[in-house]
Automatic annotation (TrEMBL):
It comes from the Bacteria. Residues 5-190 form the VWFA domain. This is VWA domain-containing protein. It comes from Kitasatospora putterlickiae. Transmembrane segments: none annotated.
Length: 219
């Protein structure tokens, strides 16, 4: 069977406090959407990493239909990227090897990365480059909300980058749209591949309501 490893890597810094409940609800909706659709659930495995000053794996890669609920993100600490990318590289390496050992074909992993601030660690580029240099180099779709820096979000993304629209007064609105886009992308991509009897081609909307697409061409 062909499996898509799919990771949400979400900022848990203290500045997320006002919006963390909305982000948890967004991830809950994603869980419900994927786990209740047998076609998608069979081909998707989901992992959740939270990060601030440290990084920790809240949910190791799993079939979402095996879970009643996801662990909750909690806001504390400062925005820090380096440990998140280091942990993500280790997790993907472990997960891809385990899936292959079980006889699965594995798609290139997809990472949805969300931050609401500028990283406080100046050396995060090294673990990020190590992640991209690995044999399982993931597609990274980066979302920035709140005080996130546009250029940083563009640097993180390898596939697409989005910034919360200036006209979106409440970041919670943008987070709900993030969840809707995230769900649509996975559902459409996996379902389309199944119906066509071919490999998955990742499909992500060029514009997400509440967000503006950030060009990666200049990087």
């Amino acid at each position: 069977m062909q499996i898509l490893p799919f990771y949400a890597v979400c900022d848990e810094s203290g500045s997320m406090s006002a919006d963390i409940d909305t982000l948890n609800k967004a991830l809950f909706d994603l869980h419900q959407e994927i786990s209740t659709n047998p076609t998608i659930a069979d081909k998707t495995r989901f992992g959740l990493i939270g990060f601030s000053t440290d990084a920790h794996e809240l949910q190791p890669l799993v079939d979402l239909s095996d879970l009643d609920e996801l662990p909750a993100l909690e806001a504390s600490g400062l925005t820090s990227f380096g440990n998140a990318f280091g942990l993500l590289r280790q997790a993907i390496d472990r997960d891809v090897q385990a899936l292959k050992a079980d006889g699965h074909d594995v798609y290139r992993p997809v990472v949805f990365f969300l931050s609401d601030g500028v990283p406080t660690d100046s050396d995060w580029d090294r673990p990020y480059q190590e992640l991209l240099a690995s044999s399982f180099r993931p597609h990274i779709i980066a979302f920035g909300i709140g005080q996130a820096d546009r250029s940083v979000i563009a640097r993180v993304a390898t596939f697409k980058a989005f910034m919360q629209d200036e006209g979106t007064a409440n970041p919670a609105v943008a987070l709900r749209e993030f969840a809707a886009s995230l769900t649509r992308s996975i559902v459409r991509s996996v379902s389309g591949a199944t119906e066509a009897g071919q490999g998955m081609s990742l499909q992500v909307d060029d514009h997400v309501p509440g967000f503006t697409s950030v060009s990666l061409d200049k990087l």
